[in-house]
Amino acid sequence: MTQRDIREISLLLKQVQQRKQAAVDEALAELQCTLAQWVILRRIDRYPGASAHTLAQSAFQTDQSFGAITRRLIERGLVIREQGKGRATMHRLSDEGENLLNASDPIVRGTLRTQFAGLDEGELQLFGDLLAKIIDHQNGEGK
Predict the structure, then answer these.
(1) Which one-letter DSSP state was computed for residue 83?
(2) Residue 143, in any domain of the structure
(3) What's the pLDDT tens digit per position in 29-64?
(4) CB-side exposure of 58: number of CA atoms within 13 Å?
(5) DSSP 47
(6) Using an 8 Å Cβ cutoff, are 41 and 100 in contact?
(7) Does residue 143 carry a pLDDT above 60?
(8) Which residue has the higher pLDDT, 110 or 140?
(9) Total domains present in the chain
(10) At what angle do helices 6-28 and 35-46 cross, to 10 degrees?
(11) pLDDT band at residue 141, thresholds of 50, 70 and 90?
């Protein structure tokens, strides 16, 4: 195997991420959904009662971009925004939002399988472990 410079590895990771995002966006287009919207729907479903800021962070969005995407989801009747304790804003999926999430999950899973088809199951798990190790180190947990 060729020894790769860390800069090249970083660019390869970015290329994989961009291709993955484009493929998922294309696959979800039939449901009038994007990867960013799917991630937000999934996070709202997975973290009931979480603050908008927490959801934004977990969805890899700024608070402002999370708000803009969520507004569109609310306008489509997919998300319901409610007042929480104090100034907190809570979000939950409507029935239509749950239906979209359920319909989109197999599409996303299949598209991701295609995007990572160059790796066998063991390599895929190793790749995930290595990415988690990088994140743990960045979070100060892997010292």
Answers:
(1) E
(2) no
(3) 999 999 999 999 999 999 987 888 999 999 999 999
(4) 17
(5) S
(6) yes
(7) no
(8) 110
(9) 1
(10) 90
(11) confident
Structure tokens at 52: 């908008």
Establish how many alpha carbons lie within 13 A of residue 19's alpha carbon, considering only the half-sphere containing its beta carbon: 11
Backbone angles phi, psi at 51, to 5 degrees: -70, 160
Structural domain of 27: 6-138
Residue type for position 74: I
Dist CA 50 CA 22 (whole Å): 28
Distance CA 129, CA 44 (A): 25
Task: Give the pLDDT confidence score for residue 118 in this predicted structure.
Answer: 95
User: CATH no. for residue 67?
Assistant: 1.10.10.10
Q: CB–CB of 64/51 below 8 Å? A: no
Residue type, 47: Y
Q: Is residue 1 part of a domain?
A: no
Interatomic CA distance for residues 66 and 83, integer angstroms: 17
Contact assessment for residue 76 and residue 101, using Cβ atoms and an 8 Å cutoff: no
Distance from C-alpha of 117 to C-alpha of 93, rounded to nearest angstrom:
32
Q: At residue 2, what is the residue type?
A: T
**pTM exceeds cut of 0.90:** no
